[in-house]
Amino acid sequence: xxxxxxxxxxxxxxxxxxxxxxxxxxxxxxxxxxxxxxxxxxxxxxxxxxxxxxxxxxxxxxxxxxxxxxxxxxxxxxxxxxxxxxxxxxxxxxxxxxxxxxxxxxxxxxxxxxxxxxxxxxxxxxxxxxxxxxxxxxxxxxxxxx
Length: 146
What we know:
Protein name: DUF6896 domain-containing protein
Mean pLDDT: 93
Domain DUF6896: 7-130
Shape: globular
Distance between the termini: 30 Å
InterPro entries: DUF6896
Number of helices: 5
Pfam family, one: DUF6896
């Protein structure tokens, strides 16, 4: 169980970090200090960032507490954590990522299985559950984006 969870987290975090570099360096979107601040930022991408993304062939979908990026080299969907954590993940996002990596058709399956793994890993100190959130972080895969 932990080997597969570790593999999914490592793969997800790699793509998440690629997106964080793209989103915050290339598109110059602000790094949120909280999930609430990201949500208040709005559901639209500023026109300058939208023009860059279009030129790069990238689709940007800001939603709720997160973002989905469809880049020519990767696709990732994630939420920011309650305190603006840019390196967190939840069971749904990991299940979606694993599903896409396997090239499976919709619907996404395995969310409950992964949630069980995350809960067990949190009990064993492998991942950290973020308070007041469905999100977790892995101490071995922290982001440079704060």
